[in-house]
Amino acid sequence: MKDACELFDEMPDQNVFTWNVIISAHIKSTNLDHSELLLNTAPYKDSVTYNSMLSGYANSAGYETKAINLFKQIHSMRHEARVDEFSLTRMCNLTAKLGNSWYGKQLHSFMVKTGNDISGFAVSALVDMYSKSGCFDEAYNVFNGCSYGSVDVASKNSVVAACCREGKVDMAMEIFSNQAELNDVVSSNRGLYGAKRV
Q1: How far apart are CA 134 and CA 105, in angstroms?
Q2: Which residues contact residue 16 at a Cβ distance below 8 angstroms, ignoring those fewer than 6 apart?
Q3: Looking at 55-59, 74-78, 178-182, which range is the least confident one?
Q4: Angle subtended at Cα 138 by Cα 118 and Cα 155, rounded to the nearest 5 degrees
Q5: Confidence of residue 198 (pLDDT cuts 50, 70, 90)
Q6: DSSP designation for 190
Q7: Is the dihedral angle over the CA atoms 51, 100, 97, 62 positive or is it negative?
Q8: What's the start-to-end Cα distance of the chain, in Å?
Q9: Within-domain flag for 147
Q10: Rounded to an integer, what distance in angstroms lies between the CA atom of residue 164 and that of residue 57?
Q11: Is residue 36 a part of any domain in this protein?
Q12: pTM here?
């Protein structure tokens, strides 16, 4: 059976897209060690390549340290790749998984400095990260301090879930009642039923 490199050699167009497809296929099959080898030897790679590998590490038990080290590597790069919103929100998810509030605060500070903290996607990731790290006040402050346009279904769901985790029923119901156009099945379950079960 041919390996990914042999198959790649037979491809008529060898570029960053084809390398990304090969590496992503290995990540999806949870063959992270081979994915890492391909990443290190690929002649073509970009932010998508590195973010795919970062996501693979972050989602796999036992690879958390490799995810953190790869994130640091991406941050130090100048040309091949750069830290972007996807990298940062992926690291927020990893930090939530680890429950590391100190690292989370450092990450949040970096997001603020680089302007990557204002989208609904970023707000949702930060709220979830702080809440799961035992920092409810910080989670609520992120949501409460974001601009009107940054509040979307995902960020609203995240803060309602955070309130429910903390047993703050009244707060969850108040947030749920505001901007009703952003409510969906998830926020209804968390806001109406989740709060009642606390």
Answers
A1: 12
A2: 44, 45, 46, 48, 49
A3: 178-182
A4: 45
A5: very low
A6: I
A7: positive
A8: 55
A9: no
A10: 30
A11: yes
A12: 0.80
Map 108-172 to HEC letters.
HHHHHHCCCCCCHHHHHHHHHHHHHCCCHHHHHHHHHHCCHHHCCHHHHHHHHHHHHHHCCHHHH
Positive/negative CA dihedral, 100, 127, 121, 172: positive
Tell me how many domains the chain contains: 1
| Model confidence band, residue 5 (pLDDT cutoffs 50, 70, 90) | low
Say which amino acid occupies 178.
N
User: Which tokens in the block code for residue 55?
Assistant: 């996501």
Tell me the helices (H) and strands (E) count for the chain, helix number first: 13, 0
pLDDT at 156: 86
Residue 184, in any domain of the structure? no
Ramachandran sector of residue 93 (left: φ over 0; alpha: ψ -120 to 50; beta: rest): alpha
The alpha carbon of residue 191 and the mean position of all alpha carbons in its chain are separated, in whole angstroms, by 23
What number of residues does the chain have?
Answer: 198
Strand (E) or helix (H) holding 186: helix 185-188
Q: Give dist(CA 122, CA 1) in Å, integer.
A: 42
Supply the range of the domain harboring residue 62: 1-83
Within a domain: 96: no
Could you tell me the two tokens for 152?
């979307």
What per-residue confidence (pLDDT) applies to 102? 94
C-alpha 134/C-alpha 11 separation (Å) is: 49
